[in-house]
Amino acid sequence: MKTGHPDKDDIKVASEDCVTFDSLARTMDMAPASGFPDLSLLDSGSAGL
Predict the structure, then answer these.
(1) Helices marked H in the chain — which ranges?
(2) Half-sphere exposure (CA, 13 Å, Cβ side) for 29?
(3) Which of 26, 36, 40, 42 is the most buried (most CB within 10 A)?
(4) Which three-class secondary structure state does DSSP give residue 8?
(5) pLDDT tens, 2-36?
């Protein structure tokens, strides 16, 4: 993702109820390591999904 958006430092992770905590935690851990240090966590309702 970072290769396609080199000017972006933020990422928004939207989660649904069916997503396990482990999957969510791994995704959140990978964001800064992938070049997105500014992480926001949203629920799917507030994200408009």
Answers:
(1) 21-33
(2) 6
(3) 36
(4) coil
(5) 888 899 999 998 888 888 999 999 999 999 999 99
Cβ-count burial 2-24 (b if 16+ within 10 Å, e if not):
eeeeeeeeebebebeeeeeeeee
On the 0-12 / 13-18 / 19+ scale of CB atoms within 10 A, 41 is: middle
Q: Does the pLDDT value for residue 44 go beyond 80?
A: no
What does DSSP assign to residue 19? S
Specify which residues 11 forms β-bridges with: 39
- Return the structure tokens found at 45: 């309702």
Structure tokens at 11: 């990422």
Q: Which of 41, 1, 36 is nearest to 25 (CA)?
A: 41
Instruction: Say if residue 46's pLDDT is above 80.
Output: no
